[in-house]
Amino acid sequence: MVGIKNNRRTKYTMELIKEVFLELLESKKLPQITVTEICKQADINRGTFYLHYKDPYELFEALQKEFTQEIMDTLGQGASLCTTEQSMINLLNIIQDKKTIYQILISESGENNFLSQVLLEDFLLRNGEDADSQKTFSMDYTLTYMVHGSLGIINQWLESNSEDSPQTIARLISSLGHQNMAKGDRRHEDATE
To answer: How far apart are CA 24 and CA 21, in angstroms?
Structure first.
């Protein structure tokens, strides 16, 4: 049916635009990419691009939201039955499958904000904390360390093209996380005595 936003042709065109855009991001920075360049490589006209996106920045933001939503959806599946390690394995599988987009999103945004939030919420959930609740002073430090330490491990794993499996990396992150949570609890107990 012509004119329906979610018809096959529209979906195909949007995927083509994203694919070309990601290819361009592998060799150029976001501010250097133009709509004309995207259209030329995707073999579409500018009007077609503008039906879906205002500019390359909006396209970049859409890709980041899609990737974050995929992560959240995957982590949310069966969350009550998941262990910290299993949710981390699920996360690492997504990141490994979409390594290129993950690395591009991180390098272009210059930070891991979207993944930091996912990891923080996951750690809080797994440790029986409410993301909106007041945490102890030492717990804030412990969670910050766990989130940023986990991001460092994930980034090193991808950048080094390590043959370690997502399960191995998840076990490492989980074991370091449990050690730090225990240390944080002991520091809090010592401070309250």
So the answer is: 5
pLDDT one-digit tens code per residue, 73-120: 776 665 443 456 777 788 888 888 888 888 877 766 655 566 776 777
d(CA 62, CA 67): 9
The reply to whether CATH 4.10.410.60 applies to domain 8-53 is no
- The domain segmentation of the chain, as residue ranges, is 8-53, 65-192
- Give φ, ψ of 163 to 5 degrees: -90, 0
Do the beta carbons of residue 177 and residue 123 sit within 8 Å? yes
